[in-house]
Amino acid sequence: MKAMYYDAFEKTPEIRPLPDPTPTENGVVVKVEATGLCRSDWHGWMGHDADIRLPHVPGHELAGVVTAAGRGVMRYKVGDRVTVPFVSGCGRCGECRSGNQQVCEAQFQPGFTHWGSFAEYVALDFADQNLVHLPESMDFTTAASLGCRFATSFRAVADQAKVKGGEWVAVHGCGGVGLSAIMIAAAFGAQPIAIDIAEDKLAFARKIGAVAAINSREVEDVAAAVKDITGGGAHVSIDALGNPVTCFNSIKNLRRRGRHVQVGLMLGDQATPQIPMAQVIGHELEIYGSHGMQAWRYDAMLAMIADGKLKPQQLIGREISLAEAIPALTTMDRATDLGISVITRF
Asked: What is the C-alpha to C-alpha distance for residues 54 and 51, in angstroms, rounded to an integer?
């Protein structure tokens, strides 16, 4: 198969032929029809993820068709159209038994713990516990865009923050995660506020549901600006970027008993941000993480997409080839693209 491959962190990847994968007893092989390019892939390439063992094939947001299945797989067969959460559970540990595969103690992550989907084929373990059947009405490009950013944002808004209609939701960072969170919060009847440094992203955020926008380069105090708009602070605030500044502002701009959700990864030298702990204590703030979403929760998200309440296809910026994904990956920390890039040509 053709795949993107690197054997050293921060070294420019190359496209090379590699052996086709074979399924484990409880796994499948999927022909990749589309796979999203995510900032998490850039973190991995930089060496920020301890799960990656070199050499490596990245890629974790995928959709495709099952081409082979192990003897132990009961729920999926050759020809099935599928996607998979970027965090998959082993199905045996206590977290998996409680339905929380997204924090499995022995989690399987294509593109991190195992070779990923920047390839013509990818092997996926624990298929019965983790794969998701795709409706025939959903194209592979849209399905691939759900795997990390959109699903993680859905869990952040719906399950972690438990956003309710009418609540103010501040979203710090309008990349793929942030725009997804804005769309989802608006679909739940909330009032999202978009915060970013780019006017084009803020304008797009308004189109998909933001009721207000703040350019953080143009205001002296982001938290104060949010409190002014909301009359006291956001009920929910999401750091969708993963930066010490956005994390601090996201907590600082909450009203009393507000909820902060950390979605943006904070790795490397940004792993221990400063937070306003006196405010957390005095105002009884709640702080949550959001790390992917369980396969069994996809039904609720897919139902909202089928009903037209959510339109993730609007967040897709461009479709690119596997070769074009190399410069897109290595420059992702400086990218100004609007929307998600998806690899659809191999």
From this structure: 10
Answer whether 19's CB lies under 8 Å from 115's CB: no
Q: Which residues pair with 82 in a beta bridge?
A: 64, 133
- For 26-39, write each residue's pLDDT tens digit: 999 999 999 999 98
Average pLDDT of the segment spanning 1-13: 98
DSSP helix/strand/coil, 237? strand
Whether residue 204 contacts residue 338, with contact meaning beta carbons closer than 8 Å, is answered with yes
Please report the pLDDT score of residue 265 as a whole number.
86
SS3 312: helix
CA distance 72 to 91: 13
The model's pLDDT over 220-276, given as tens digits with 9 standing for 90+, comes to 999 999 999 999 999 999 999 999 999 999 999 999 999 999 999 887 788 889 999
Q: Report the first-to-last Cα separation within the chain, whole angstroms.
A: 10
Q: How far apart are CA 79 and CA 304, in angstroms?
A: 25
As given in the structure block, the two tokens for residue 258 are 């507000």
Angstrom distance (rounded) from CA 69 to CA 205 = 41
Q: Is the pLDDT of residue 277 over 90?
A: yes
Which residues lie below 8 Å from residue 46, measured CB to CB, with a gap of 6+? 9, 10, 268
Identify whether the C-beta of residue 217 lies closer than 8 Å to the C-beta of residue 246: no
- Give the single-character DSSP code of 279: H
Would you put residue 10 in left (φ > 0), alpha (ψ -120 to 50) or beta? left
For residue 309 the two structure tokens come to 């309440």
